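Open question from group meeting: does this chain pack into something compact, or does most of it stay loose? Before anyone orders reagents, we agreed to write out a predicted structure and look at it together. Recording both the input and the output here so the notebook holds the full record.
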Amino acid sequence: MRTRTKLRRTAGYVVVGLAVSSFALIGFLGFAIDIGYLRSVQSRMQTAADAAALAGALELARGRADATGAAKEDAALNGFRDGENRTAVQIHTPPRRGALRSHAGAVEAVVSQPVRPFFMSALGFSTVTVAARAVALPAQKSGRGVVLGE
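Structure tokens returned:
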């Protein structure tokens, strides 16, 4: 008789423990989904920044003055248009930081956008700003090739 009474008292603890651990497991799963999503956005953004820096450097290598326009157009072709959905595409010639800072022929592209996570908003993260940066420099010998750096 004592064993049944003891089992009934401990059964409630098992249910509470299961509920708490399930809540924690779902929380970690949601966090992992958000991190994966933000990483995916950052990867696409890095592609856009690489393309923008390359386009700007190619324009400079060809002797054209409008590296910024070509760079922003390539970023837009990769899904990140400056000013759309609070996206910022910044083009700097010369770059503002890094090893090629103040190198006149180099082009820096910085793409950033606030992204709304799915589950992290429950923890107070309404938006997370994701950014990517790329620097390109025309090759010295031919003036046609481009070296992507940093």
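Observations to bring back to the group:
The mean pLDDT is 86.
The chain has two helices and four strands.
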